[in-house]
């Protein structure tokens, strides 16, 4: 397996994936050494997905946040806690979900005081480079449904023309990385935390997740 960073004209995680049909544990170990794009240089660590290999639903977000980068697990910060609450309220068991991100390293810029790291959205090029990890997770987990959390995850899975406001709360059927998938797009929980009317935004997220729960019933 390659051990050096990918050249800038060939960003891709592909050389770092294990051969054959690896388990989630094998993928997680391999992803820890991924150098497929420059994001690994400043991040604390790779943040791979978490959950059962037999989960019925896969939740795909954008990228790790500050707390996720420090702890090495996805959705452990404020947005993750809000997502867990919304899942339960919508009738989805968080224990029966596999959670991951389209990009596995935290991309950020420093605040002026250099005491706080500010989230910076990944580019389409970076999302594409990380795509092989998400494709591998989809192959292993083979979920019945994918919940797409926010615009960045939507672009990574459905292309650059994706607009979350146009399709949120609907069940889509698409071929993703060579697999037929059912998907329910919704907003990223972090957008709920930033909303002026947080309760209204939260109820909108719960309503979308109820569509996902109904699709699984």
TrEMBL record:
One of its GO terms (molecular function) is deaminated base DNA N-glycosylase activity. Residues 48-210 form the Uracil-DNA glycosylase-like domain. One of its GO terms (biological process) is DNA repair. InterPro entries: UDG_Type-4/5, Ura-DNA_glyco_family4, Uracil-DNA_glycosylase-like, Uracil-DNA_glycosylase-like_sf. SUPFAM superfamilies: Uracil-DNA glycosylase-like. The keyword DNA damage applies. Belongs to the uracil-DNA glycosylase (UDG) superfamily. Type 4 (UDGa) family. PANTHER family: TYPE-4 URACIL-DNA GLYCOSYLASE, TYPE-5 URACIL-DNA GLYCOSYLASE. This is Type-4 uracil-DNA glycosylase.
